[in-house]
Amino acid sequence: THTHASQLPNTGLFGTSTLLDWLKTYTFPLESRYSSLSHARRVYDRAVTSTLSHGTTTCAYYATIHPESTNLLADICLEKGQRAFVGKVCMDCKEICPDYYREESAQASLEDTKAVVQHIRSKDPHGELVQPIITPRFAPSCTKEALSALGQLAEDESLPIQTHISENKGEVALVKQIFPNSTSYADVYDSFHLLTPRTVLAHAIHLDQTEMELIKRRGSGISHCPLSNTSLGSGICPVRRLLDHGINVGLGTDFSGGGSCSILTAARDASGVSRLLSNFEQGNGKGEEESERMKLSVAECLFLATRGGATCLGLEKRVGAFEVGMEWDAQLIRLKSVPEEGGVDDGEDKRMDEGIVYCWGNESWEEKVAKWMYCGDDRNTRKVYVKGRAKLQKTPKRQETKEKEHNTN
Fold it and tell me: What whole-number distance in Å separates Cα of residue 365 and Cα of residue 371?
């Protein structure tokens, strides 16, 4: 539910910076290069292939401020058959955005956004695979005129919206400074009609009680991005509290803030940070029972990665579960069984082409799933289906070797 396709080349690069410094040092210089379509194709092709290879059938992508390369990202998603929401990033505020990477005006931002919407709808009129999504980067990056125009466009054209909220304490303070008449970060978006049932808000670490209640009333969803939250030192999102408020929550990889394009890694990290939060809560005087509730189970983390995300994106009736009448979005997972007689197939073990999830024959179904979530990776993903069609199929290396030997003979 939250990925920056343009930032793939910077994955793993953040040094000791926090959000606002990271944007200036790493992100804005990289994203400014996407006026080049050859550069955009090189990156976007790999970004879509990578997320597909990790089992992601549906992805919400941020592109850059450049409409032509944003259109290219949508085209690549269609070519590869991945369901996607593709958004041209909007950022026109002179006080926040650098001169070399900023839209000329609110009107220019609006017109370029309309052009992207028109392009995507011309390629996929009914949004069966790819849909445009309104994408103000975050409130400080946009003028009030731009936020107002984008909110109106979303309403007029029934478009989904994606943006960031309360990722970093410095960011929250900046919002308060820029929008002194708003009661909160969430209120800024609400005042411009950007909080809707089709809005996905990334991070949401530092929301207060009033903001949670407002987001619940508007029906907006939250994209929980545990890896980038920790990588940039932003904090730990209290997912249990969001769920207790009845807010829809999905998972995001948020690369390059997050160091992986794997939604399985995001599920694993969601579990880990919830356990840390549980420990912190108990250390801050919360009761043991209340602290324990902060932990997310394996089942809950996988729910966030599937049905939770589908609900945030308004696709809960189409994907996210195996139910009659829903579209067949799935991945085929293969886990490695250790032979009872012992011994190692030396060639196979060196290749490790089936990953490092070992099954010994005594695991329950739930235990196998837990092993996969905590230890699995893209090597376990053998096939990926979108709308019933295989979009990715991997052949185990030992099978490739046998086929080559057969063909040689």
Answer: 10
pLDDT digits (tens, 9 = 90+) for 351-389: 457 799 999 999 999 999 999 999 999 999 999 999 999
User: What is the rounded distance in angstroms from the CA atom of residue 324 to the CA atom of residue 308?
Assistant: 18
Structure tokens at 304: 């966030």
> Would you state the structure tokens that stand for residue 202, as one six-digit string?
């990334």
- Show the DSSP H helices in 158-251 as ranges: 169-178, 185-191, 209-218, 226-231, 239-244
State how far the Cα of 140 lies from the Cα of 132, in Å rounded to an integer: 22
- CB neighbour class for 137 (10 Å; exposed up to 12, middle 13-18, buried from 19): buried
Sheet with 221-224: list strands edge to edge: 161-165, 199-203, 221-224, 248-251
From CA 238, how far away is CA 236, in angstroms rounded? 6
Q: How many CA atoms lie within 13 A of 2 on its CB side?
A: 34
pLDDT for 409 equals 46
Q: CB–CB of 262/334 below 8 Å? A: no
Residue 352: per-residue pLDDT: 56
Q: Is the peptide bond before 141 cis (omega within 30 degrees of 0)?
A: no
Backbone phi, psi, residue 83, to 5°: -70, 135
**What pLDDT, on the 0 to 100 scale, is given for residue 341?**
78
